[in-house]
Amino acid sequence: MVDTTLIREHMPVVDCHGEPIGTVDTLDAGRIKLTRSGSPDGQHHFIPLAQVSMVDDDKVTTQTTREETFALMRSGQEAQREES
After folding, report:
1. What pTM does this model have?
2. Pfam families attached here (predicted)?
């Protein structure tokens, strides 16, 4: 289990290979909310905390690749739209 108290605003989020995914905006209901400014489509995206493998002094690392993480974010947004 990752210590989520170590996650801070403006920390970079990288995939399991160190490729950049985004920047932490805040924690929101068991997810990391990424900043819009780091997003290619200018929207907030969310990463479930269950996908985080490690938090160190300067970054958050996911368990998945960049492509897998973006696919999870897209599928999560689809589900959020359907619930609305």
Report:
1. 0.84
2. DUF2171
